[in-house]
Amino acid sequence: xAQPDFDKLKKLATQIRRDIVRMVHGCQSGHPGxxxxxxxxxVALYFHIMKHDPKFNMDGKGEDLFFVSNGHISPVWYSTLAxxxxxxxxxLATFRFLNSRLQGHPATHEKLPGIRIASGSLGxxxxxxxxxxxxxxxxxxxxxxxxxxxxxxxxxxxxxEAAMYAAHNKVDNLIATIDYNGQxxxxxxxxxxxxxxxxxxxxxxxxxxxxxNGNDLKEVINGLDxxxxxxxxxxxxxxxxxxxxGSGVDFMMGSHKWHGVAPNDDELSRALAQLEASExx
Amino acid sequence: MTKFxxxxxxxxxxxxxxxxxxxxxxxxxxxxxxxxxxxxxxxDAFKKDFPERFFQTGIAEANMIxxxxxxxxxxxxxxxxxxxxFSTGRVYDQIRQSVAYxxxxxxxxxxxxxxxxxxxxxxxxxxxxxxxxxxxPDMTVIVPCDYAQTKAxxxxxxxxxxxAYLRFGRPVWPVFTEGRPFTIGKADVMIEGxxxxxxxxxxxxxxxxxxxxxxxxxxxxxxxxxLHTIKPLDVDxxxxxVKKTGCAVxxxxxxxxxxxxxxxxxxxxxxxxxxxxxxAVNDSFGESGKPTDLLKKYGLSPDNIVAAVEKxxxxxxx
Lengths: 281, 318
Ligand SMILES: Cc1ncc(C[n+]2csc(CCOP(=O)(O)OP(=O)(O)O)c2C)c(N)n1
Fold this sequence. Notes:
Structural class of chain A: alpha/beta
Number of helices of chain A: 10
Shape of chain A: globular
Oligomer: heterodimer
Radius of gyration of chain A: 17 Å
Number of strands of chain A: 7
CATH topology of chain A: Rossmann fold
Distance between the termini of chain B: 31 Å
Mean pLDDT of chain B: 98
Number of helices of chain B: 12
Helix content of chain B: 25-40%
Largest sheet of chain A: 5 strands, parallel
Number of strands of chain B: 14
Helix content of chain A: 25-40%
CATH class of the largest domain in chain B: Alpha Beta
Bound molecules: thiamine diphosphate
Structural class of chain B: alpha/beta
Strand order of the largest sheet of chain B: 3-2-4-5-7-6-12
CATH architecture of the largest domain in chain B: 3-Layer(aba) Sandwich
Strand content of chain B: 15-25%
Largest sheet of chain B: 7 strands, mixed
Number of domains of chain A: 1
Strand content of chain A: 5-15%
Low-confidence stretches of chain A: none
């Protein structure tokens, strides 16, 4: 694969961060924190790692598939999809407004290109991803299935049902990632319901586990490339991706406060002043 | 002019929070559980003043219901709090087996129900919860209409024995029942009239109050009944009113299948057939948007109620 153009990808990440804060500001609702924290990951997937076609097709045969289980971070996904050519970036302005295809949480109901399953109710995505990965195997399709979850989301029992299943069934074309930002709605994950040794848990469930920094684009790309190398050897792969909630906007970082709060006008301009880019929708 | 005036505007979930806090003071057996939505459910005051009786379960609703069922064994009165979708559909079998079938005194308290949750969209806007819950044997189902009634219902549940589902919402909404008596299972006749009975609950009671004012201007006399308790249903109140008016319109922020309209229609068709129209979501999912825009788009505005009344009156005349 061609060497990534880091300058270009970094600019794109900044543009996507601008989109995120502007979208959430526009409708005065939505989830900026997790979205900003996962921006590098989305850029890496859609602009370097995945083989995918913006002329969207539900079955995605011969393509890599991506499922977002923590659907509340829809702003980063919508912006990435638009910037990757799935739909016009102007449509980002309709986020969360009546009659929009850009629903508060990702949905197939309005037929937005790029979305293959509804998410928003946490804990369901890994099961779907594992199923889609098995369908690929049945189809003799050698591409990968990616899945993103939150760390708070790990508290849902269904995650661990899927974990057990995927390992037992050697779903080794499945590459999952956890946005390990240590935050959820009511506070730090360790105070709400501690995940303890998350790495040991996934290893114990039979997964190949690696860690990388999700806010360093090089590390994300290397990490995901390495995940592909680890895949297809009998085990599903888990990336524990350390991120900062709110990454890129200083006053949104370091706490759970910005999980699901929209910036006011003043906060928006302070945020945009930290994010220089020129291709606003 | 409406016959009720809004004395204030507050969210019903805050009524739950205030009622729960009050119960915490009144009864040391009252405990509260929450699945990572303490602020959204307005449970902070209870948590702050009774930390040893507040249980944070993390994002694990199925476990929360099981824990609550367990806590009743030993005499605790658990109030669980999460969004309505995750309070019902997410945990239906846990509620069915560990709470309803086992006869446990768990109070399932559910916020952000219906379309008026707004921008989060259809994944969260559950419109099937009342149907699911009312189908469970012995489950009490209450849908209060404003802050004051949600607070009163929460407090009433503290001394009620048996499984119960309390449904409330997110938006700031008129408060108009301050000081009115509230009894579980007893319908509240809010306006007396003779031409048609409107049965409403939840946020739709205010919509019906506004519709009544428009209908009064047209010379139509409406009896408005707040049917906050869907189960057990106040059958006598339904029959007595419709005996007088001869027709009914039901209003709810729920699917047309399985909700309040269903319950009223069943009573009427079995005991006293009369024309009925239903203002409800017509077998579709919701979407993102502002609460009032959504109510309009999905046919739950005061004008929709007016139209339903006019339609049912035509049918009554035959
Ligand atoms: C089943 C379910 N329960 C509760 C919620 C409400 N909720 C939305 S996001 C969230 C916190 C998620 O935490 P995490 O996975 O760490 O995501 P982050 O806050 O890091 O974005 C909760 C509790 C939900 N969407 N689904």
